[in-house]
Amino acid sequence: MQRWRGLEDIPEDWGRSVVTIGSYDGVHRGHQVIISRTVARARELGVPAVVVTFDPHPSEVVRPGSHPPLLAPHHRRAELMAGLGVDAVLILPFTAEFSRLSPGDFVVKVLVDKLHARLVVEGPNFRFGHKAAGNVDFLKELGTTYDYEVEVVDLYQRGAAGGGEPFSSTLVRRLVAEGDVTGATEVLGRPHRVEGVVVRGAQRGRELGFPTANLETLPHTAIPADGVYAGWLTAEGEAMPAAISVGTNPQFDGTERTVEAYAIDRVGLDLYGLHVEVDFLAYLRGQETFSSIEALLERMADDVKRARELVEAAGSPEAAFRADDGR
């Protein structure tokens, strides 16, 4: 899959293509329906499938300081999109100047002059251009002038049979913030992941017999609510069952919020300096303080036991979610 950073990276001889545009943070199941439809139509037409996205998130430029928590960094999004069959991802640097492009200028500069769009696939709520003034109706209107078609894909819904809410990155962020990682998994189609480099912490876990990998997470990462979780710690391609702690460690009067993962039944791991991933399978309990170190150790042993059982039942991060999403 080709990855372009800015319009200047697009090859000069690039031909027609099928395009979809959006932030696509998390590449959740709703996104997957739109992207998969983009790929399917591209295959039918015999042209490449292209996803256009933005960095930083547009809200950070339009309303500085309002950057939403990120569900997946761009390299992870590209990896997920490649798995869906996308041929190229274009990351557009979203600057103040770019934000002032009118919807018409956006279409000409991006879709017409550079990507030579034959078809654009979007959800019904797609907005674009200065002050989000453009919508799918305007996109269709311009298509008659610039020789491209527009296909609108219905939004996927959570609990649709009961009149549920549309899948969205906002929904996933709320579920993650509430610690409902099971609900987040339902919308994402896989466990929520947090990435970062392993750094040295207070090393209390090592002293207590439960050495943890302390993550220095990526900026703006969506971190689950404080508590203890079951999941996986992946280092150098190996996914290891893990008990994960998120919070300030009030037992020892901590003040800094951290993400720490204990690789269950693994001895002698040296992960310092490695970039690792932590996937959240299930919430076990909230943050607590205990009357003694002995009581803490007893609860930690129980957390590890429950985490081990849940992870063994799930099998792997890839197998943790099974559902027919209608695709």
UniProtKB/TrEMBL annotation:
Q: Write the Enzyme Commission number(s) for this entry.
A: 2.7.1.26, 2.7.7.2
Pathway participation: Cofactor biosynthesis; FMN biosynthesis; FMN from riboflavin (ATP route): step 1/1; Cofactor biosynthesis; FAD biosynthesis; FAD from FMN: step 1/1
Instruction: Give the organism, scientific name.
Output: Streptomyces sparsogenes DSM 40356
Under the heading InterPro entries, the entry gives:
FAD_synthase, Riboflavin_kinase, Riboflavin_kinase_bac, Riboflavin_kinase_bac/euk, Riboflavin_kinase_dom_sf, Rossmann-like_a/b/a_fold
Instruction: Respond yes or no to whether keyword Nucleotidyltransferase is given for this record.
Output: yes
Please name the GO terms that the record assigns under molecular function.
ATP binding; FMN adenylyltransferase activity; riboflavin kinase activity
Family under the similarity heading: Belongs to the ribF family.
Q: What's the protein called, per UniProt?
A: Riboflavin biosynthesis protein
According to the entry, every stretch annotated as the Riboflavin kinase domain falls at 187-312
Record's catalysed reaction(s)? FMN + ATP + H(+) = FAD + diphosphate; riboflavin + ATP = FMN + ADP + H(+)
Q: Which UniProt keywords apply?
A: ATP-binding, FAD, Flavoprotein, FMN, Kinase, Multifunctional enzyme, Nucleotide-binding, Nucleotidyltransferase, Transferase
Organism ancestry: Bacteria, Bacillati, Actinomycetota, Actinomycetes, Kitasatosporales
